[in-house]
Every structure is written in C-alpha cells, then in structure tokens.
Amino acid sequence: MTKEKHFSRNFSLKLIAAIMVFVGMFVVAMVFGAANTTVKDVWLALTSHTTNEQITIIRELRFPREVGAIFVGAALAVSGAIMQGMTRNPLAEPGILGLSAGANAALAISIALIPSANYLTIMVACFMGAAVGAIIVFGIGSMKKGGFSPLRLVLAGTAVSTFLYAVSEGIGLYYKISKDVSMWTAGGLIGTTWSQLQIIVPFIIAGILFSLFLSRQLTILSLNEEVAVGLGQKTTQIKVILFIITIMLTGASVALVGNMAFIGLMVPHVVRAIVGTDYRYILPMSAIIGAVFMLLADTLGRTINIPYETPVAAIVAMMGLPFFLIIVHKGGKVLS
Amino acid sequence: MVRLFTDELNVGYSDRLIVKNLSVHIPDKKITAIIGSNGCGKSTLLKAITRIISHQTGSIILDGENITKENTKVLAKKMAILPQTPESASGLTVGELVSYGRFPYQSSFGRLTKKDYEVIDWALDVTRTKEFKFRPVDALSGGQRQRVWIAMALAQETDIIFLDEPTTYLDMAHQLEVLELLQKLNREQERTIVMVLHDLNQAARFADYIVALKDGQIVKAGNCEDVINHHVLRTVFQIDTEIGRDPRTNKPMCVTYNLLKGDS
C-alpha cells in the first residue's frame, strides 16, 4: 500500500466539499427571507453599487446578519472542539462549562452599570465573564482529587451556569433592564450591524487562526497528558493559551448573539465522524461546518414563520437536544 | 559512567512522600525492570524520572544535566515514555498516531519531512504494525495497540524508553510478544529500556538489572540473581517463595509462593 499521503489528500477533498456546501448555504441564506429577493438581487448587492429596496435589504440587513452567523457558528464550533480535546470530555462545550453563562452575566452587569457602554466594552466584559464562569466550573471540578471527570465537570457546569443565568436575570429585574438584556441574549442575530462586526470579527478570526496553529498540540493533549509531556509539550503553557482562545471565541460570540448553546457540542462530533480525531483536521472543518450550521439555523429562523422571527437559539436548541441525549447515551464512545 | 541516575530523590505530596531519598543508576543500553508491590512507588518513580510529575527534593541527572533545567523538547529527543494504558480515546489512525512521535523534531507548523516519514515507516516495520497503518488505533486488539504505542515511542528516536507496565491487560502470548520486541530493540539497537513490571518471572527473564522497591525505597538493585531470591522477595512482597530455575533460560524463577503468616 503506497498511499503515503492518502489521508491528507482525502482531507483536502473533504475540505473542498465542505467549502462548496458552505458557499451553497450562504447563497440560500442570502436569497431566502421575509422580503422577496432573488439570486439576481443578491448578486447585484454583492458585486455592484446598484440600489433598490431589495438590494438595500440584502446589503444592510441580511448580509451583515449572515456574516455574523458565519463567524459565530465557526467560533462556537472551534471553541467546543478545543474544549472537548483539552478536557478529553465529549460533553465539553462553552454553553455547558459555564463560559456562555459567565459572558451573559457580564453582559447584564455591563448594560446595568455602564449605560454608555459601547460594543468594545461589552465584548471585553463578555471575555471576562466567560473566563470567570469557566474558572469557577473548573475550580469546582478539580476541588476533589481526580476531578475533571466528564460527569463532575458537566454537573458543576450546569450548576454554575444556572446560577450565573439567575444573576443575569436578577440584575435585569433589579435595574429594570430585563428587556434590554433579553433582547441581547435571546435576540440572536437580529439587528447585527457592520459596525458591530468590525469590532468583534477580528477577535474571532484571530482566535481561530491561533487555534489552527496549535492544532497538533491539541491532538497530543487530547491523547493523554503523560504522552503530551513525554513528547516534549509544555502542557501548562499550551492549556493556558487554548483556554484564552476559547474565552475569546465564546466571549465574542456572546457579545454578538447572546446565548447560543449546543453548537459547540454538536459540530465537533459531526466533524469527527467525517475527518477522524486529529485536530489538524477537526478544527478547520469545525469552523466551516459550524458556519454552515449557523447559517442554516438562522435561515430557518427567518423563514419558518414569516413575517415573524423564530429565535435562532430555540432552533439550535431543538436540533441540539436530541444530539446531546445521544452523546450522553453513548458515553465517551462518540469521542473516539 | 551512566547517563541517567537519581540522587536522593523525594517525590510525593506535601504530607506524604511516595518515593523516599532514592538514589538509583540506570545502566546504559540495558533492560531495567522496576518491581514492587502495589503502592510501593514504582510508577511514581518512573513518572518522576520522566518529568511527568515533579519531585520535592533531590535530583535526576541525564547526561550531566538536571532534567528540571533541561528544555522539555530536548528531553523528548532523549527519552520516550509509554504511560500505563494510554486512554484509547484515539480514533487516530495508526499512521497518524505514530507520526506524532516526530513531534519533538518539528517546528510549530512543521510538516513531516522525508526523514520523518522514513523513521515512521521504520517504527511501523519493527513493531509489525505497518499493515494497520490506515486503521483507527481503537479498532485494534490490546496487543496490537500496545505495539502501536511502542512504535510511536520508537518514532521519537530516543536512546532511552520508559514503559509503565507494558504487559498489563494482555494475554500470555501477547505479553511475551511485547517483551521480546523490547528485548530485540535493546539487543539490536542498544536502546536503554526501563519498565515497571508486575510479573517477577518476566522481570527475571528479560531484565539485565532489577530494582526492587518497598515503601518508596530500594530494597535491592542488581542483576536477577541478586534480586529474585527468597530473602529479597520476602522483604519486598511479604511472600514466602520457592525459587527454581527456568529450564529453558536458566534464569531464576519463582516456582510457587505463599503469603507470609503474621505481620512481618
């Protein structure tokens, strides 16, 4: 058998296929919506300076919204993949390990205390909130010897997340800003603007690029900590960097769309079924599939019940819950 | 002069030392077996020497350098570690896994070079795992999987290889297969092998040097004649043994044993 580089060529093919699906999904997302638009309108909106009502809708409302969907989907999927690899826990996910809830709480606090908060402030607050949430969960998870067991982390994550969501609610009620907060956290991609994207997207791109750079390190870490040390990895250093990347990706996503569970959980598992368990392949593929998935969810949200919006978070959760149950049922097997 | 030794090594947690004041020389180009009862600190010693866990006091010297001061990637080119039952959480293919043995030689974004591919192929050849190259590791049997992990350690091209109970969970034939592979690597390529073993007779048969531990301290270190005898085994395992000779290898072997009565 002389298929020396067979695997990587295989991966290139899969990557190209995924990119084609992605482009197709993007076109679908751009064409379909509450307003009647055609492929031609989309084409004109993207390539020319022509304007009419349809084209303006696409250019100023739908286009930024779908760009947001792409980056949020990619960020959450990559973030979930990193966390699953790092903790060797198939259930790890920003929504489950307290990052999303922490970012949400921070978002509520910053809206309450800094009424003039601009987008950058809110994003930084989300970063810090995500970090605090994760640190509490991992702190509880490792309090007992032999901590970090999948079950304990998930339990700690659920408890801490519930608490942090309660904090957000409490702050919302106390400062009478519930509506603002929930508009943000449950609003999904509604009202995403180019100016928001300009601030947040660079962080997501940076996070994903860094993670790709560390993908081999992540694979080694995902095998076994001792193996990683034996191969000469500075494990603590790598873990800290990966941790910061997940916080950046999750925090940026929450700042843009609020609470969005399950994408980080589902996408990496789907991707593993396609490309195997080497993170050199998992991470780029997760970014693409995450984007596709988010585009799909948002398009469904916009079209299921025209002219009303169905919250994206609800659609994602409805697709995600059965998946979550399957993973719990199969135990760690899905990871391998 | 030996390349690797420990000097008054103490390893453990703040309240409880597991390895106590232990000084041991690892003979070059030999097979060393570490034996002892459960909880005697043999795995801990192995992990400390291979920098997986840190030690309290004392030193571990490799090639005249204290390993705590050495760059971890440099160490990874000198010693490879095969931990006890690596989590099989690996849907990686055999080829992918073994290629990660080249990790210490690669730059952060490094692609595998021609030399890397040669070493990987060689490692697969020696361990007779080439036929599985494109199969996921976790689809293999226990014995095959263990050979794949050994292949990964070999791809690291280190002079010293550490193994923590490499025969656990394997049936008799596969245990022997793994040990003979290690013996071959030692004899033909002069690799220094250090392993924790549970089976006394395997230690006697394959090791040139045996370190018997009890309560984190060395009871006896020497060749199999020095260690596999009634007196030492009595102290180390609290067993009363009948030592005979392996009719094929003429090495000492424990023919039968009883638990010692009383609390001695």
TrEMBL record, chain A:
Q: Identify the domain of life.
A: Bacteria
Q: Which residues cross the membrane?
A: 12-35, 67-83, 95-114, 120-141, 153-175, 195-214, 240-267, 279-300, 312-329
Q: How does it sit in the membrane?
A: Multi-pass membrane protein
Query: Is Cytoplasm included in the keywords of this UniProt record?
Result: no
Subcellular location as annotated: Cell membrane
| Keyword Cell membrane found | yes
| Family annotation (InterPro entries) | ABC_BtuC-like, ABC_transptr_permease_BtuC
An example of a Pfam family matching this protein is FecCD
Q: Which GO terms describe its cellular component?
A: plasma membrane
Q: Which family does it belong to?
A: Belongs to the binding-protein-dependent transport system permease family. FecCD subfamily.
Q: What is this protein called?
A: Transporter permease
Q: Which organism is it from?
A: Neobacillus vireti LMG 21834
Phylogenetic placement of the source organism? Bacteria, Bacillati, Bacillota, Bacilli, Bacillales
Automatic annotation (TrEMBL), chain B:
Domain ABC transporter as annotated: residue spans: 4-240
Record Pfam families: ABC_tran
Q: Which CDD domains match?
A: ABC_Iron-Siderophores_B12_Hemin
Q: What is its main location?
A: membrane
Q: Which GO terms describe its biological process?
A: iron ion transport
Q: List, in alphabetical order, the Gene Ontology terms for molecular function in this entry.
A: ATP binding; ATP hydrolysis activity
Q: What is this protein called?
A: Ferrichrome import ABC transporter ATP-binding protein FhuC
Q: Name one GO cellular component term.
A: plasma membrane
Membrane-topology descriptor: Peripheral membrane protein
Q: Where in the cell is it found?
A: Cell membrane
**Record key words, sorted:** ATP-binding, Cell membrane, Ion transport, Iron, Iron transport, Membrane, Nucleotide-binding, Transport
